[in-house]
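name: query_chain
kind: protein
chains: 1
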Amino acid sequence: IFYLMLRRPPRSTLFPYTTLFRSYAQGRQDKNIEKIANKFLKDLYISIVNEKQLNLDFIYGKVENNIFIPLDGQQRLTTLFLIHWYIALKENKLSSEIKAILIKFTYETRISSQDFCKKLVSENIDYQLINTKISDIIIDSNWYFLSWERDPTVTSMLNMLDKIHSIFNLSDNVFDKLISNDIITFQFLPLEKFKLTDELYIKMNARGLPLSDFENFKANFSSYLETVGDKSKLDNQWLDIFWEIEKRHNTEIAVKKVDDRFFEFFKNITLNFYSEIKRIDKNFIDFSEEEEKNVN
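structure:
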């Protein structure tokens, strides 16, 4: 159903383009996330190879100008996109027609995420050169920018592709089954039809992956920003500042540390504004040196 969703013409009841605004997390190198992702991939593998229907529950989102913007289900949709691309590449089915369909799937979190998705689909990769990790071949390609390693969505996609390769490399002649039959299905719930709001995004997350405190905060905070441009800065220009800070302090950048720095900044600046508005005694907040000596 994922492939058919992208394949529909612009005036169909479904939508020809899918745009995602949140970072891809299902491929992150985290023990709990990897456990969930591995089970999800194995479920998909069994379903596809054995042509056994698998329903992925509800996908929540909205449609604007024939573009589907998922508020929940983004992780599952991205993994399906990567599986379609991988199997098509493996079985030499990545024709211009297939590319034209898969390229409709894109990210808006960062320009680098968007560019990576386009290049992954449009450029050619020799499957025969893959040894143990498909990510090595992608990273060594002349179209791959090393700066993309700063993008958590790109690194998560590369990690997920390695997982997909480890599970699906033994499969054979399954691409036509995947795109022809309703093997992998889901129910679509349009928020505007049911008069639901983006706040639903906070309460529902894909395939049991819990939202972090910072992700919950961003979802709430963005509702107070008046323009789309300001909202996009949360995961772009503003976040880049803390990526640069983390990069100066560590050779290996940890996404969680970047998020933590960003979140702590918001906490501190909020406390500063609150103390100014409420005229709170600074010593009450900062805990003076004399009080600290007394406590010690």
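note: The beta strands are 17-20, 54-64, 67-72, 105-107, 184-190.
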